[in-house]
Design brief:
- The chain is an alpha+beta fold.
- The protein has helices at 2-14, 16-20, 77-82, 84-109, 123-129, 151-159, 175-180, 227-230; strands at residues 22-24, 30-38, 57-64, 67-76, 136-139, 170-173, 195-196, 204-206, 209-213, 222-225, 231-246, 251-264, 270-275.
- A hairpin with a 2-residue loop joins strand 8 and strand 9.
- Helix 1 packs across helix 4 (84-109).
Length: 277
């Protein structure tokens, strides 16, 4: 159990988006009600003789099933016997990194139920699937000031996030994107927008939000959002670690196994800056 706990901890350290999403541990299918559109669902004030207006919220559901997640490592008996003190830490690091890659990438850009094989739905995938992609702001590598990544492009992206989600928003991008794009941006007064700061769980801050390095986010893409409120991950079967001995070959297999799923609860909790060329 301690090895399994360390594997998840290692995975979440490598992929902060995985660490930030809301997590459940429900066996079977998890169904969550959500808004798919709002016409005029707010409360209102009325005169005494006026009837209350009909509810016009449009409801949908997020249904999370389960996808098998597994990773196996084979080592020789000789290696195990000669490096027993270092063997468990090695196992933790290796399985943690590989599980982290699978889950971290899936939450950022997994293909969902239509992928082959099926996997959790990624945030980038869900935003790109929307009609007219209202939560995506595109930029070019070169061009006019209005076309390249800039102060105005980022503020436009932030404006697309619903106000109720702003508290708790963070900025996610891979390491190269952070240091070659975000860290070089300046405002109209030629002041850096990116402030290095490792005390808040990331590598810096922009617009009051923590900037976090996440290798799962596509190259040149910048994801802004509230992962805790906008994405749900469910673990149907908790991770377990199994072993299998092969006497003739003098090897042993170590396998990590879990059943998980994930999906976007509300796209309005996110905005994506995407390179268009």
């Amino acid at each position: 159990q301690s090895v399994v706990a360390w594997i998840w901890k290692r995975a979440e350290e490598m992929y902060p988006l995985l660490a930030d999403v809301r997590k459940y541990n429900v066996r079977g299918t998890l169904v969550i009600n959500k808004h798919t559109g709002i016409d005029s669902g707010d409360a209102a004030f009325y005169d005494e003789d006026t009837a209350t207006a009909d509810e016009k919220n449009i409801w949908g559901t997020l249904s999370l099933g389960g996808h098998e997640l597994a990773k196996a490592i084979t080592v020789s008996w000789k290696m195990r016997s000669m490096s027993i003190e270092e063997f468990v830490p090695f196992l933790q690091r290796e399985l943690g990194e590989r599980v982290g890659v699978a889950m971290g990438v899936a939450i950022a850009k997994g293909g969902g139920k239509t992928a082959e094989p099926a996997e959790p739905e990624g945030i980038e995938t869900a935003l790109a699937a929307e009609s007219q992609t209202p939560q995506i702001v595109t930029y070019k590598a070169t061009g006019t000031e209005a076309e390249v990544l800039s102060y105005d492009k980022i503020t436009t992206a932030i404006s697309k996030i619903h106000s109720s989600y702003l508290a708790g928003c963070a900025i996610y991008a891979n390491n190269a994107t952070i240091w070659t794009k975000l860290a070089t941006l300046k405002d109209k007064e030629n002041r850096p927008l990116f402030i290095p700061d490792v005390t808040a769980g990331g590598v810096g801050r922009m617009f009051g939000m923590v900037v976090k390095t996440d290798a799962g986010v596509s190259a040149d893409n910048i994801l802004i959002g509230n992962a805790d409120k906008g994405y749900v991950m469910n673990t149907n079967e908790p991770m377990s670690l199994a072993t299998e001995e092969h006497v003739k070959a003098r090897t042993v297999d170590y396998a990590a196994y879990a059943i998980v799923d994930g999906g976007v609860l509300d796209t309005k909790a996110f905005a994506l800056l995407k390179k268009s060329d």
